[in-house]
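Listing S7. Sequence submitted for prediction.
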Amino acid sequence: MNNIEIERKFLVLNDDYKQLAVSKYSIIQGYICKEPERTVRVRVKTSEDGSGTAFLTIKSKPNKMGFSRFEWEKEIDVADAKQLIDMCLPGVIEKTRWFIPASLPHNLIASSPLTWEVDEFHGRLTGLVIAELELESEEQAFEKPNFIGKEVTGDPRYYNANM
């Protein structure tokens, strides 16, 4: 079991991603622990049909480049997750996550298709839109669609736990 998350983050320039999206869901998440060495997050995801799933996630601090870190995630009962969110630290996050298939360069062979995840934040963070791409290696090539702007990978201001 490989619990390493390799992720790149970018600011989003426009809402072109909405026309390219194949699905979306709503997220409410809070943090039980936000320390420099680790975070413990509770998340409830609600799909367009109203069904929900929930997860408890533990993440380590990112490596020096900001690309990789340990991530452990376990599905939990939605009702339990909602109770845990009520106990989270201040700053619960609400956002819509949009899924956009990524174009693969012709010379790249990946074991699974890449997908851009675009988070459109709501509430106190309205106006912030961040795109993430999970990779199989830090060196993996990818194409940036026209809605992708400045890279913010490794910038602590854009870690959800710091928002």
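Caption to Listing S7: primary sequence and predicted structure tokens for the chain studied. The chain has a mean pLDDT of 92. The domain at 4-162 is CATH 2.40.320.10 (Hypothetical Protein Pfu-838710-001).
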